[in-house]
């Protein structure tokens, strides 16, 4: 799963360079609102909301914005957001899944289709790419003073299927059904998460040249800049050369 770990590194680099923080905040607020509307406004009784708030704090989303989003979700005038997933192939046969949160699915699918078409890709039928991606729980936190050997057995007991480390971060993967157990275990261990959520991890990947990768990134960047898009996943084999090309 090292490809996902490298993609997380790229996302952190992009986030650090991204001046338009309002777009990041908008996506975080949508997730908080949906979580509060579906599971109630109390984070202690609503694991999804608790996680959404945590992810918001990791991105420095102001406390008042979080409180306002929860209050709005509980009111009669809350937006009726719908969660939808679009699947398709981008340039060079790269499989791409796009998770969206929208109050107008006609607008969203029209925009997403236009992005794919612009770069020579095409949308597929719902479920057409499920065989390429597994939806897993992914938890990322800074190493800091954490000794992985001290907590490894606890993580395995909570359902960890794989644990990756790099110079700065530890990433834990678990099956979808073990997500809640892992979230609770990390809370019990008092580990501050950098990011957590259900992610779509490719089980087979596509090898690209730097030029091909950069052409696909134009589509991915356009998708990620759409206000209705929450997450974009792909099956590119992320080599060190491709990761390095992001700095060029």
Overall mean pLDDT stands at: 89
Low-confidence stretches: none
Rg, please?
A: 18 Å
CATH superfamily of the largest domain: YebC, transcriptional regulation domain
What attributes does this structure have?
248 residues, alpha+beta, Arc Repressor Mutant, subunit A, Alpha-Beta Plaits, 3 domains, four-stranded antiparallel sheet, 9 helices
Which SSEs are present, and which pair or pack?
Layout: H1 2-17, H2 21-39, H3 47-58, H4 63-74, E1 82-89, E2 95-102, H5 105-118, E3 122-123, E4 133-142, H6 148-157, E5 160-165, E6 169-175, H7 179-188, E7 195-202, H8 210-224, E8 229-234, H9 240-245
Antiparallel strand pairs: 1-2, 1-3, 2-8, 4-6, 4-7, 5-6
Helix pairs in contact: 2-3, 2-4
Description:
There is one protein chain. By secondary structure, the chain is α+β, with helices and mostly antiparallel strands. It has 3 domains: 2-74, Orthogonal Bundle (Arc Repressor Mutant, subunit A); 82-127 and 205-234, Alpha-Beta Plaits, CATH 3.30.70.980; 133-202, YebC, transcriptional regulation domain (Alpha-Beta Plaits). The protein has helices at residues 2-17, 21-39, 47-58, 63-74, 105-118, 148-157, 179-188, 210-224, 240-245, and strands at residues 82-89, 95-102, 122-123, 133-142, 160-165, 169-175, 195-202, 229-234. The model has no long low-confidence stretch (mean pLDDT 89).
